[in-house]
Write a structure and sequence with these properties.
Elements (H helix, E strand, L loop, with lengths): L1 E8 L5 E8 L3 H12 L2 H13 E9 L8
Antiparallel strand pairs: 1-2, 1-3
């Protein structure tokens, strides 16, 4: 399963960052992200990032067919 994060800082699309990650499952992704969000150091970093990120989105790509036979 691939996940693309698009982060745009400042005006227009000049400062665009695209992060591509591949996860074995949504469950594993959820566990890792929850652990990160609960980390106090991440909270400090996120405060700094929040001041420069103007817009962000996440796209989720799953293989087709999504469920093997």
């Amino acid at each position: 399963m691939k996940i693309f994060d698009v982060v745009i800082s400042r005006a227009y699309d000049n400062n665009t960052i695209i992060v591509e990650r591949e996860w074995q499952s949504l469950s594993k992704m959820e566990k890792i992200m929850t652990k990160g969000f609960l980390d106090p150091e991440f909270a400090k970093l996120y405060e700094k990032l929040d001041s420069i990120i103007e817009w962000a989105k996440t796209e989720l790509y799953a293989p087709h067919p999504p469920f093997p036979e």
